[in-house]
TrEMBL record:
Keywords: Membrane, Transmembrane, Transmembrane helix
Keyword Membrane assigned: yes
Protein name (record): Thioredoxin domain-containing protein
Residues annotated as domain Thioredoxin: 42-178
InterPro entries recorded: Thioredoxin-like_fold, Thioredoxin-like_sf, Thioredoxin_domain
Key word Transcription regulation present: no
Length: 178
């Protein structure tokens, strides 16, 4: 009996290692064009989809109305995800370097949870940061996003130039939009 339990645990550990490696390879493999998530490679140089999000004032805003013709970074986040919080903190800590970058923090979670994030991080005075709710879950399904934080970086012509699954250093954001 004891050997069976040990054998089961060894099997679980080996399975975890194999699937963990596969998941890491599949979701974060580096490609020549600089995209960090292989399943998004087909979207490079495609236009930003037309979406509507609910902003902090409960008003529907179209993606075409966000930030005009500036390079835009969409950060898909979960209000209770510590990694998402770290990514938002990274953006806020380096706000002076990222002032010219326009950020859209988008969540599929309920409005009150988005509003809590808005309050917790004191985003009210951040002129280059928009926060909203994708209540139709359009972005996650369109891009087949499998985890958060996920970052989509669009050029001034609103074409996807880079995508990341997981945390991103502010220098990578700057190099992508320049």
């Amino acid at each position: 009996m004891r050997y069976k339990i040990i054998l089961v645990w060894v099997g679980i550990l080996i399975s975890s290692a194999v699937f963990g490696w596969f998941g890491r390879y599949y979701y974060t493999s580096k490609l020549e064009n600089g995209i960090s998530t292989s399943y998004l490679a087909k979207f490079i140089k495609t236009p930003m989809p037309r979406i509507e999000v609910l902003n902090i004032d409960s008003v529907r805003v179209r993606s075409s109305d966000l930030f005009g013709n500036a390079a835009t970074v969409i950060l898909l986040f979960d209000p209770y995800c510590p990694h998402c919080h770290d990514q938002i903190k990274e953006i806020l800590v380096h706000q002076s370097e990222l002032m010219e970058v326009k950020f859209c923090l988008i969540t599929p979670f309920p409005f009150y949870q988005m509003h809590k994030t808005y309050d917790d991080f004191q985003l009210k005075n951040m002129k280059n940061i928009f926060i909203g709710v994708d209540d139709k879950n359009y972005l996650l399904s369109y891009y087949n996003i499998t985890g958060v934080p996920s970052m989509l970086i669009f050029d001034k012509d609103r074409k996807l130039i880079k995508a990341f699954l997981g945390g991103v250093n502010y220098k990578e954001i700057l190099s992508a939009v320049e």
